[in-house]
Write a structure and sequence with these properties.
- GO terms for molecular function: ABC-type amino acid transporter activity; ATP binding; ATP hydrolysis activity.
- Keywords: ATP-binding, Nucleotide-binding, Transport.
- This is Arginine transport ATP-binding protein ArtM.
- The chain has 241 residues and is of the alpha/beta class.
- It has nine helices and ten strands.
- It has a six-stranded mixed sheet with strand order 6-7-8-3-9-10, sandwiched between helices. A four-stranded antiparallel sheet has the order 2-1-4-5, covered by helices on one side.
- Strand 1 and strand 2 form a beta hairpin.
- Helix 3 crosses helix 4, helix 4 crosses helix 5 and helix 5 runs parallel beside helix 6.
- It is globular and about 55 Å long.
- It starts with a strand and ends with a helix.
- The mean pLDDT is 96.
- Bound molecules: adenosine-5'-diphosphate and magnesium ion (MG).
Length: 241
């Protein structure tokens, strides 16, 4: 499981995270929602130490990330796949090459083994026929599905999604959400930052509402969407729904 305890993050004078704590148990899906600038991305990045918290501790499977040396952090981070709003695929590699690069380089898989696994994953995200294509030839939705498959190729125990559909044209949102939903159905442990409220309701075990660097509410989706407790959450939902 992942435990973030009393996370603070400052960028100079800017206090972005102010005492954020969250636990994610195995198999759980936590959806984080909240206004732009509230610190959601920074918090996700603190969890795998892409950002170093100013204060607090992060544990992943009983390993205290915040106490590890950089080399060990890299090792534990392999357990955590991350998918971003902008897909960050390697533009000069084909889809298949994108998927086999890290498993070969980091995990030491043979090309044959890596390709076999990559093809399974492409089938899972519905893109078998795109293995030999370059990312620029794919739609945004297809590129994001490749990015998800690429993260999965490292066989992570956890997946973090940071607004995975925010950069997509509306007609492509569904195909990406379906892939994420199918991952949830297989029991993957996930933290998802999203503005897709219908999806959040469906997929989340727990909804966390962040505003101004703090978690203001943490509740079941039913509770949260039917009866948010804080005015700020009510405001936010009124604007977005
Ligand atoms: P969200 O994902 O909820 O929109 P972010 O975590 O991206 O919010 O940003 C929270 C605040 O932190 C914003 O004011 C943003 O400008 C600031 N911020 C994020 N990253 C940095 C950084 N690397 N340096 C300085 N300020 C940053
Ligand atoms: Mg963000």
């Amino acid at each position: 499981m992942i435990k973030a305890e009393h996370i603070f993050k400052n960028f100079g004078e800017l206090h972005v995270l102010k005492d954020v704590s969250l636990e994610i148990r195995k198999g759980e899906v936590v959806v984080i929602i909240g206004p732009s600038g509230s610190g959601k991305s920074t918090f996700l990045r603190c969890i795998n130490l892409l950002e170093k918290p100013t204060g607090g501790r992060v544990e992943i499977d009983d390993q205290e990330m915040t106490a590890l040396r950089p080399k060990q952090v890299v090792k534990v981070r392999e357990k955590v796949g991350m998918v971003f709003q902008h897909f960050y695929l390697f533009p000069h590699k084909t889809v298949l090459e994108n998927l086999i690069y890290a498993p070969m380089k980091v995990k030491g898989l043979s090309r044959e083994k890596a390709e076999e696994r990559a093809k399974e994953l492409l089938e899972k995200v519905g893109l078998s026929e795109k293995a030999g294509q370059y990312p620029s030839k794919l739609s945004g939705g297809q590129q994001q599905r490749v990015a998800i498959a690429r993260a999965l190729a490292m066989e992570p125990d956890y997946m973090l999604f940071d607004e995975p559909t925010s950069a997509l044209d509306p007609e492509m949102v569904k195909e990406v959400l379906e892939v994420i939903q199918s991952l949830a159905d297989t029991g993957m442990t996930m933290i998802i930052v999203t503005h897709e409220m219908g999806f959040a309701k469906m997929v989340a075990d727990k909804v966390v509402f962040m505003d101004d660097g703090q978690i203001l509410e943490s509740a079941s989706p039913d509770q949260f969407f039917s009866a948010p407790k804080t005015d700020r959450a009510k405001d936010f939902l009124e604007k977005i729904l």
